[in-house]
Amino acid sequence: MKTLTTRSAGILPVILSVFALLNFWQPLFAKAAPPPQSKPRIEVCFVLDTTGSMGGLIEGAKQKIWSIANEMISAQPTPELKLGLIGYRDRGDEYVVKSFSLTDDIDAIYGRLRDFQAGGGGDAPESVNEALAEAIHKMPWSGDRKVLKIIFLVGDAPPHMDYPNGPKYPDLCREAAKKDLIINTIQCGEMAETKPIWQEIAKLSEGSYVGISQSGNVAVISTPMDKELSRLNERIGATLIPYGDSKLQAEVHAKYAMAASAPASAMADRLSYNSKTGKAVQGRGELVDALNDKTLKLEEIDQKQLPAELQKLDRSELQKRIAKTRDERADLQKQIVELSKKREAYIQSENKRLAAEGKGDAFDQKVGETLRAQAAKKGISY
């Protein structure tokens, strides 16, 4: 083996120093990793005329609210969604305005919507201005201008402009614009005096106007996947672990019972929404959901906040039970996601057929089309 010459021995430390310097500086020249993509946020408040003439639209909305919510979160990355709900009638009716605040608990909004019944009214103008004022000023809208914030005003009659000291829609539209709120108007039916005002409201608040049939023309599409999704819904229900005080646990049971009693299409849409958002129940009060979204840690579980049968287990048995339930839930949700994709493809095909037959003016379709167009302005891509 040859020995190093004096010259070679002198060069070697220099070479090693160069390599050391290159290794030191390499991280600085390396391409920086892209920051994690933040989720877009969407806030939507539906302002619905709930007088007697709106029965068809209200019943259709009950069946399609989960479908509409699914459409709203179909962007990539999946947006965070909050919905609010306002029903309005007129002075002298059972109520003038009935309001439910913006929330990410879509189960709660669905329950409120199911309670709405068409009634009252009977004369043309309604308390539209009061309902818009409630939506603009009382809803807890985000102050972040990156958030897409939309009001859908849905009704068939114009507003009262004759109430002394009452709010007026031109002023309200200007106030909405200052808050970066878009007001879209959906006219049900063909009342002549409604159309120009609905168009003006949309124009003043950078929204859009559409007209649909009085009934809302909502098409409920049955699919070959509904039966299997119903079975999976029952199995998801068996994995629920209510967590919290008695009131919160009761709410979890009530939400599942409400979903189980819903029409097959609404139940399937809810399952799809929950699986996309990684939940079994929207809102608080379900243990596995809380562990999965890291609002609760396994070691922090208070067994007194669990159902009675789980309070009897020792800590080791409880953890095994929870782990088994989480695994089972995850497997079921994978099945639901795959089946929901097939169902959505089937429904899209049917919707295209209905549109070709001139039946494409449905309430839920117009909401989806409008939202997708306006989301682009906030960089939300569908």
Please provide the count of β strands: 6
β-strand percent reads 5-15%
CATH class of the largest domain reads Alpha Beta
Strand arrangement within the widest β-sheet reads 3-2-1-4-5-6
Tell me about the biggest sheet?
A: 6 strands, mixed
How many structural domains does the protein architecture include? 2
- Structural class computed from helices and strand pairing: alpha/beta
Walk me through this protein's architecture.
By secondary structure, the chain is α/β, with parallel strands linked by helices. It has two domains: 41-219 and 359-378, von Willebrand factor, type A domain (Rossmann fold), CATH 3.40.50; 226-345, no CATH class. Helix content is 50%, strand content 12%. Strands 3-2-1-4-5-6 form a six-stranded mixed sheet, sandwiched between helices. α6 links the parallel β5 and β6 (209-212). α2 (55-72) runs antiparallel to α3 (106-115). The longest helix has 42 residues, at 315-356. The radius of gyration is 27 Å and the shape is globular. The termini are far apart. Mean pLDDT is 91; it is low at 1-9, 12-22 and 24-31.
Write a short abstract of this structure.
With 382 residues, the protein is an alpha/beta fold. It has helices at 6-29, 55-72, 106-115, 128-138, 169-178, 194-204, 226-238, 246-260, 264-276, 287-292, 308-311, 315-356, 363-375, and strands at 41-49, 80-88, 97-103, 148-155, 182-188, 209-212.
